[in-house]
Amino acid sequence: MDIFKQKKKNTGRKKIEIKKLEKNTNKQVTFSKRRSGLFKKTSELCVLCNVDAAIVVFSPADKLFCFGQPNTDAIINSYINGTTEFETSKSIGKSISYEEHNTEYEKAIQNLEFEKKKLEEYENLTKVWNSGEWWNDPIDEMSIDQLEQFMASIYELRRKLVDRAHEVVMMLPMLV
Fold it and tell me: In angstroms, rounded to a whole number, what is the distance separating the alpha carbons of residues 63 and 32?
């Protein structure tokens, strides 16, 4: 049998039954995924068909999420006033596109990952320094953050030594 002629059998996407979710965590996850898809599709509809649209959604945790093209306020105000005219000069200045929000989100995710790595480094340093003999580590290979932590540890050790020496000096008259 030829390997290249065999087709891989997979299930692909499955149609799910549309029914109310019971678990709150499942509701939140589903809401987050579907909300982003809904906003993306609405953005595409606005661009492709040159239409104005607004979506206002409350999450299962009662948080408000809005999307609007040119912006949500302008569309809602025009609906309330019964007009199809938008205050374009004001709304364009305030309007932030879906792509710009995605860019901000990606930057925030990158910052979060960077901070997680820094936290992991600090935790590793703490483990090494708490294991003993951290004062024998070479300082030439340390980063600035590591040097600052090292210096703080040295000062803390010095303070504890001075306190302990003071305690011993105070106990000397009692021992004599």
Answer: 11
Query: What distances in angstroms separate CA 80 from CA 30, 57, 84, 94, 133, one per listed residue?
Result: 31, 18, 10, 20, 72
- Domain 24-88: give its CATH architecture: 3-Layer(aba) Sandwich (3.40)
For residue 68, the surrounding DSSP H or E stretch is strand 64-69
pTM above 0.70, yes or no: no
pLDDT single digits (tens) 28-40: 888 888 898 899 9
Quick one: CA torsion of 86, 87, 90, 91, rounded to 10 degrees? -10
The domain segmentation of the chain, as residue ranges, is 24-88, 97-131, 134-171
Average pLDDT over residues 138-161: 83
93-99: list long-range contacts, CB under 8 Å, 24+ apart. 95/68, 95/69, 95/70, 95/71, 97/43, 98/39, 98/40, 98/43, 98/67, 99/43
Retrieve residue 70's tokens.
């040119």
Task: Name, in order, each residue with C-beta under 8 angstroms of 99's C-beta and a sequence gap of 6 or more.
Answer: 43
